Amino acid sequence: MTMTMLINGHEASSLPVGDRGLHYADGLFETIALRHGQPLLWQRHLQRLSTDCQRLGMPVPNHLLLREELDRIAGNEARAVAKIIVTRGIADSDYRPSPQSPVTRIVQRLPWPMYPPDVRRGVAVCWCKTRLAHQGQLAGIKQLNRVEQVLARAEWLDEYAEGLMRDSDGWVIEGTKTNLFVVCADGTLVTPDLSQSGVAGVMRAQILDSMASLGLNCRVQPVSVGLIDSAQELFLTNSLIGLWPIKQLEARPYVVGQISQKIQAALQAAGCVA
Amino acid sequence: MTMTMLINGHEASSLPVGDRGLHYADGLFETIALRHGQPLLWQRHLQRLSTDCQRLGMPVPNHLLLREELDRIAGNEARAVAKIIVTRGIADSDYRPSPQSPVTRIVQRLPWPMYPPDVRRGVAVCWCKTRLAHQGQLAGIKQLNRVEQVLARAEWLDEYAEGLMRDSDGWVIEGTKTNLFVVCADGTLVTPDLSQSGVAGVMRAQILDSMASLGLNCRVQPVSVGLIDSAQELFLTNSLIGLWPIKQLEARPYVVGQISQKIQAALQAAGCVA
Predict the structure, then answer these.
(1) pTM of the model
(2) What Å distances lie between residue A82 and A76, A142, A181, A271, CA to CA?
């Protein structure tokens, strides 16, 4: 039995109850695909974690230390998941963060999720009723607070692979655990602006950065339900799934088109997908 | 050394890392004043916890069991704090809550906070820059996610006892850990409407329910910065502090007036304050 979890570098499976991650959701996480023990998109995950820590005023964990800890738990299964949680350490009795107090690092290996078969050839999704709040100070950050996503995920059982979430003004933002891309009628791509809500996914960033080399254009802008209605193709992304085309949004079918397939193949070829 | 923490009824000081409280902030808490081991406003705390569980679709913990656990950790110091955390149990790898999975109950005694001297005769407060997001589905709930409060509390050191928070539209909602009451020029009271953000405090509820017997009127309504500017008195409340009059809001002094003192005395006389 290999080790699967380290807390601050020590083998452990439980956390001191006083941790600010539990008391205040005062922390961040990264979910990373492991292929034969190798983390995919590692530099991007590190980069986002560091930026998010800075935005919350948290010390940034040492990158080499995190990698060393990840390697210790990674194992060598064909596919697995590494989840890294970084919290602002032990809670004072007050919300006030102590700049001196060291962060807590939880580095953990989890089994690869059991996705339904054939998801790479297209999934059915629904609209969620739960709305995402506007909070510009936290938008984009992969923060521990996932309550809106939990409430949204409770809205359906297994009939859909994912649910699309809108913000309080009705703009379409993301799935509960995925980012969204829209292929417009003119062949350009759009992905929702995340300046007021949502999580800026690492796979989303990878795709945005590879657009030019694929001869594609993508704009980051507010996405209306109308744009979804008129879309030629729709697809979802995250670090584990890579890219799932949407073949149905509730009653409405969508074509799994060439642009989704082209990006999916490019991610695969670039070794970004487990 | 008496026991100070129970997790699901067992003495413990650490929590399985897989708990949804840590992963998703998927849970609630209550902070309860203990006076010689007796919880104050116990029925109100239980009531709010139960209502909040129902709003999140979580099973409500058994009331007698919770009280029994609280009694086991309460000790008999003149003053202490009981913190009860209820989470949606062990995380699946998915946000989806499992209706079968039992909640986690953490019942813990903490030391009474070290408040500055003379706070009951008035405190100085500031405005926070961090805004509270609108999220009607969660507004009022004492949920584990306190990130906005952490960011707000990081805005000042010890020069103020509390900071006042506004929502994204500029309405005044509450302090980082307190509710706010405004005594208007005509002697009526107002406390902010919490239908879009904020925590509906137990002491706030106690005060609202005792208004009539004190011969006072209180309206729950949106509170503008202008109303704060024109206020005769201002005060803060929560389960631990009882009532703190505000004697200064940044550069602006306020009178610690008769109505604040009358309510403060009534809470004391009714045994609501430790």
Answers:
(1) 0.96
(2) 12, 15, 25, 17
